[in-house]
Write a structure and sequence with these properties.
mainly alpha, 0% strand
């Protein structure tokens, strides 16, 4: 068994412990499904898979399972800074009301694993640069239309459009710790997991294609998240992937 398989087995064995005595049949079903049927199909690296599963659990608000998977990720040698970047960036897509408690719990888990906090700063912008650098990142990922939104967008959306550039992209996407492929991939997972964000999923599916996360990879992302999210949301987003891929001839 390779290291990837070992790490995922630790993840699921640990996750099953609370149910092993009370619901052994259910624990066995999930263990077999994830290990023998879902995980072997993965086309992701172990790091990518952890990033996706943790992001999906944030999106669906599965805090107990998030903490169990986080423990497994740290045991497997996952970079704590990459995990922290998932939590920080999630706030732009889920809101502070849904990420604050996860960040507090993640810090508790990291402390228990002997990780010294706070972790090293990863920010690359400040009050004077975040808008320009954030807008440049938007343009690099989504095209020149992002710049025109700032000058040609509806007047009533002027504030939120500026915040998208200087906060969502200037505060988060410009940070070190994750690359553009990873940041677009986890954003895709945040949107997939919370549901009701189909328009944004279309935009970020195209964004993923633009940074090299192709149709096959996004399908694998959905498949690896599906046990934690269920079939309806997974099937719906596969339709969106197909739609955007058809438009772009991916």
């Amino acid at each position: 068994m390779n290291n990837s398989q070992n790490s995922f087995r630790r993840e699921q064995t640990h996750a099953a412990l609370p149910l092993a005595q009370t619901d052994p049949e259910f624990a066995a079903i999930m263990d077999h499904f994830i290990h023998k049927r879902v995980e072997p199909t993965s086309k992701l690296t172990p790091r990518e898979r952890y990033l996706c599963v943790l992001s999906a659990l944030l999106g669906c608000q599965g805090k107990g399972e998030f903490c169990r998977v986080l423990e497994s990720a740290l045991d497997a040698g996952m970079d704590p800074i990459a995990i922290r970047e998932v939590l920080y960036q999630a706030t732009a897509y889920l809101g502070l009301g849904r990420t604050y408690d996860f960040l507090v719990s993640a810090n508790e888990v990291m402390t228990q694993h002997g990780i010294s906090l706070p972790l090293a700063n990863q920010g690359t912008t400040d009050e004077n640069t975040r808008f320009d650098h954030g807008l440049a990142k938007q343009v690099s990922l989504f095209g020149e239309g992002m710049a025109r939104v700032q000058t040609e967008g509806p007047a009533l959306r002027r504030n939120i459009n500026r915040w998208l550039a200087d906060n969502c992209f200037g505060d988060y996407y410009t940070r070190n710790g994750l690359n553009d492929q990873e940041r677009e991939m986890i954003t895709f997972c945040f949107l997939l997991a919370q549901g009701g964000c189909e328009n944004q999923l279309r935009g970020h599916t195209a964004g993923n294609f633009g940074v090299g996360n192709n149709r096959e990879k996004l399908y694998s992302v959905v498949e690896q998240c599906m046990p934690y999210l269920g079939y309806p949301r997974s099937l719906n987003v596969m339709n969106i992937i197909d739609e955007i891929a058809s438009q772009q001839n991916q």
